[in-house]
Recover the amino acids of this structure.
């Protein structure tokens, strides 16, 4: 008790007091241990088994496998950060509780709320670190890992969509009853795309009232200098409102004023895990133009999850410190086991709400943030109950 009387003074209300420094020294070793342990576990489950199979079945070079593992490590570390925060807070506060050090602090006038401030500060720092990793490092590393693996296996995954480029545009209007309606104004289709030129083009253009246009061309490419499409070896059909052909024009080279969105859509072939929030928002705008509601909804959920995941560190830090301050005598094994139970419950809720969000049952915001809200509520409830004892 004398040790804590010397630690806790009037200045202890200031962040990073002597008590805070003491608690941080206790929190950091289990946190670093958790990062290593959980990152290794996630990496083994998520990547190593599949890479071992490809080493045996597909003859994947060992050097490439090592590079892919190294590139997939940041994703595993990001998942390990919240788990490690939970483990560190739970183990540290459980240890202090079992050794009656928390009781000594309370006898010195330190409230339970003040005890967990250090854990919350650590959790906030890890939250920021998780966000930086998830935005700046993980998407680029995931994309490089996928590209490296595909190149080694000769799957030749390009950074663009190769076939069946389908891009519709819609216009919304209100009918005579005032109901919202949506009609197709333009449809762009290409059989193939080689990264520069579209082939096998068919364009149906209904954007001008009183005149519909159908263009069929052998190939076409975007002209960035003039912001226009160059179509080659094709035929343009002008259709009157009575559905009769007004004119048929054959051409070798024709400049057509159409948006570049079909090209942008074809060039965006990254998976959700290979895009940061800014890239995901750009992709969302393209999907909105295309009008695929399922893809739009799914992408909205992923964007919200990218923002919600770092705050799981704060939730886990609060839950771990609250549970750890309960008077008990538990060892490291029990703390580790309890951490796994909490982690499994959280990620089960995360997967469930994501599926409900993808299906349109929950809104993207509710689907992504509800596990955090539930965990934060549970942590605060436990903390208040313990503080009022």
């Amino acid at each position: 008790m004398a040790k804590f009387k010397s630690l806790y003074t009037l200045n202890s209300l200031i962040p990073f007091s002597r008590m805070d420094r003491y608690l941080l020294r206790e929190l950091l070793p289990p946190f670093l241990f958790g990062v290593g342990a959980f990152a290794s576990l996630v990496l083994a489950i998520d990547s190593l088994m599949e890479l071992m199979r490809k080493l045996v079945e597909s003859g994947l070079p060992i050097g490439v496998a090592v590079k892919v593992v190294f590139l997939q490590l940041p994703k595993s570390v990001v998942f390990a950060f919240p788990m490690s925060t939970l483990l560190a807070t739970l183990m540290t506060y459980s240890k202090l509780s079992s050794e009656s050090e928390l009781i000594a602090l309370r006898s010195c006038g330190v409230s339970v709320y003040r005890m967990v401030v250090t854990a919350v500060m650590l959790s906030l720092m890890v939250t920021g670190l998780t966000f930086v990793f998830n935005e700046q490092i993980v998407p680029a590393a995931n994309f490089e890992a996928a590209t490296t693996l595909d190149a080694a296996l000769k799957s030749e995954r390009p950074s663009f969509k190769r076939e069946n480029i389908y891009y519709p545009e819609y216009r919304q209007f209100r009918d005579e009853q005032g109901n919202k309606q949506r009609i197709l104004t333009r449809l762009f289709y290409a059989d193939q795309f080689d990264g520069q030129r579209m082939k096998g083009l068919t364009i149906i253009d209904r954007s001008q009232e009183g005149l519909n246009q159908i263009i069929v061309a052998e190939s076409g490419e975007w002209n960035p200098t003039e912001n226009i499409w160059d179509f080659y070896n094709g035929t343009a059909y002008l259709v009157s409102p009575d559905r009769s052909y007004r004119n048929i024009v054959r051409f070798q080279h024709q400049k057509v004023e159409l948006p570049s969105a079909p090209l942008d859509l074809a060039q965006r072939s990254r998976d959700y895990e290979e895009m940061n929030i800014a890239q995901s928002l750009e992709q969302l705008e393209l999907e909105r133009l295309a009008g695929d509601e399922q893809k739009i909804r799914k992408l909205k959920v992923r964007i919200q999850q990218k923002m919600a995941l770092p705050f799981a560190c704060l939730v886990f830090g609060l839950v771990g410190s609250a549970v750890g301050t309960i008077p008990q005598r538990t060892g490291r094994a029990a703390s580790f086991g309890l951490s796994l139970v909490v982690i499994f419950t959280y990620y089960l809720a995360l997967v469930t709400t994501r599926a409900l969000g993808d299906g349109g049952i929950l809104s993207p915001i509710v689907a992504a943030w509800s596990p955090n809200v539930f965990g934060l509520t549970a942590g605060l409830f436990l903390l208040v109950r313990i503080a009022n004892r």
Summary: The radius of gyration is 29 Å. The longest strand covers residues 180-193. Residues 112-152 form the longest helix (41 residues).
